[in-house]
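Before the break, one more example. Copy the sequence into your notebook; we will annotate it together after we see the structure.
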Amino acid sequence: MKLRILGCSGGIGGRHLRTTSMLLDNDVLIDAGTGVSDLSLTELSMIDHVFVTHSHLDHVTSIPFMVDTVGGMRDRPLTVHALPATIDAMRNHLFNWTIWPDFTQIPTPESPLLKFVPIEVGDVIELGGRRIVALPANHVVPAVGYYVDSGKSSLVFTGDTTTNDALWRVVNRIANLKYIIIETAFCNREKQLAVISKHFCPSMLAEELSKLERTAEIFITHLKPGEIELTMQEIEEDAGQYRPRMLQNNQVFEL
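Here is what the structure looks like once it is written out:
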């Protein structure tokens, strides 16, 4: 099992800044930010499932374009897995015929190009020998993280979150944990903004990582453009004992 990073930035600008999106093998997306747009038509047409962490635009923006672009090339709907509140947000504010057509009704309600499947925290979805588990997250809108388990090893993606004891209770029970991808959206001087928006800054990240009771390689995602070097320097100063590294576009994790 392979997880390829398509986007891991907190913004856009230039070739290397793409918002959150990860491709699991060839057929599953975890979030669908702007990084999805770098896939070819053939690659897009092979995606059967999207697991969405939450409704914010930087995590869902490519779903409408993907369905519109390759929906007609496929013989089954694209299945989007998300919390009920996230599905409601996408129905009401995105696939509402005003912002974008409702592809759950096209070409017919009986045979649509898009299908929503609600999930809850703790749900385990089995797809071809892969386990995808919804993790608790603490954000300004209802949100989840995910972990993917190949049987040999697991990768945790926190999604957008802030201080979250419930997450670590689950993570610390994952016996085959290998990787953690965790966000840090702001530098320390913007800690108050991080608190209000329910993200991390480096000092908060260090406090959170102290709750980790297992050994894992840690990667930082969702860094804000213009503050990347400063934030990573502060992460090194505040959380250096955990050896976190910056996540990179096109990085591949073998599980």
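The chain has one domain: 2-254. Residues 2-254 form a domain with the Metallo-beta-lactamase; Chain A fold (CATH 3.60.15.10). Try to locate both features in your own notes.
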